[in-house]
Amino acid sequence: MEYKTLNNGAEMPMVGLGVYDIPERETQRVVEDAISVGYRSIDTAAMYYNERGVGDAVRACGVPREQLFVTTKICEPCYTRDETMRTVEHSMRELRLDYADLMLLHWPVGRPAVMWRALEELYKQGLFRAIGVSNFYPNSFPAIVESGDVMPVVNQCETSVLYQQREMLKYLRPYGVDLEAWSPLAEGKHGIFKNATLTAIGRQYGKTAAQVALRFLVQQGIIVIPKTTHVERMRENIDLFDFTLSGDDLQAIQRLDTGHNVTGWPSDALTYPV
Ligand SMILES: NC(=O)c1ccc[n+]([C@@H]2O[C@H](COP(=O)([O-])OP(=O)(O)OC[C@H]3O[C@@H](n4cnc5c(N)ncnc54)[C@H](OP(=O)(O)O)[C@@H]3O)[C@@H](O)[C@H]2O)c1
Fold it and tell me: Which of 14, 115, 119, 208 is the most exposed place for a label (fewest CB within 10 A)?
């Protein structure tokens, strides 16, 4: 596993397991499987209703807590500091962990600047090792930067070979904020695993289309959190660090970019007032 040093000095694995849509009753098993094959980072959210399973796996897995990186997100629209605190308390009660490694504002709802200042307060108290945002585009991101004194460590946005987010990468660079890719396999849609370009490139290295798609992001320094419930695919999705895509490969993959979101979530169109 390779790690990224975030702008506050925290070390985050370049590949983690996303657990969106995994039923609560299966989550502990899935996360323990992932940890047993080498995952050290898990991405959950209040909205996934499986934080409890993630916390149970973290406590049961036998890997020291400090070697694991747990991300969660608050999604409730909050308008005051106290509402935000209550939402956070709910997540921490579900996780039953002493701290989260990364707490994100899931999207720009409620009053993000107020919510951000509450997260900053808890970060400074040590409840979170790092704080960041998700789905914040240039219409909402500046309000976060201007409202507080802690820079988000990441902006987690839909990013894949089909939606490469080159503008977002450029936008975040001056802030020193890392891009983290959600749905890095485009939810498995649009024939991504049979894509002729990805398959042909993979053949040169003995890799699958999924591995090429993830390597393309990781090689640009983008953190990825592919989701799977299958152990073989978990292994496949972290086995990205023994090959390097060539300049020609990168150019060919760049041509797959559609320039817009492909999962159907209107994530980059959120225009809530901040
Ligand atoms: N911040 C946000 O707003 C936001 C939004 C969406 C997602 N996320 C996060 O991002 C994570 C990943 O995104 P996602 O779950 O939407 O989609 P994804 O990781 O892009 O794709 C997951 C799909 O691909 C399949 N798959 C995974 N690896 C595979 C492989 N090697 N070969 C073939 N099929 C494979 C999975 O099936 P199986 O499970 O059957 O293997 C599943 O159907 C989420 O779990 C969540 O943590 C965040």
Answer: 208
Distance CA 19, CA 30 (A): 9
Question: Topology of 11-257 in CATH?
Answer: TIM Barrel (3.20.20)
pLDDT in tens, 34-58: 999 999 999 999 999 999 999 999 9
- Among 44, 155, 228, which residue has the most ligand 1 atoms within 8 Å of its CB, making it the best to mutate? 228
Q: Between 96 and 139, name the one with better pLDDT.
A: 96
State yes or no: pLDDT of 274 exceeds 70.
Answer: no
What string of DSSP letters covers 224-265? E----S-HHHHHHHH--SS----HHHHHHHHTT--SS--SS-
In this prediction, residue 92 has a pLDDT band, given cuts at 50, 70 and 90, of very high
Beta strands in 175-242 (DSSP E): 178-182, 223-224
Query: What CA–CA distances, in Å, run from 75 to 21, 142, 233?
Result: 15, 19, 29
- The C-alpha atoms of residue 10 and residue 14 are separated, in whole angstroms, by 12
Closest residue by Cα to atom 19, ligand 1, is: 226
Q: Which residues pair with 261 in a beta bridge?
A: none
Mutate to test the pocket of ligand 1, among 227, 261, 268 (most ligand atoms within 8 A of CB): 227
Tokens matching residue 45: 């959210």
What is the rounded average pLDDT for all residues in the chain? Answer: 95
Q: Whose CA is nearest to atom 22 of ligand 1?
A: 187
Whole-number pLDDT of residue 148? 86
Give the pair of three-digit tokens for residue 55: 């916390």
* pTM beyond 0.70, yes or no: yes
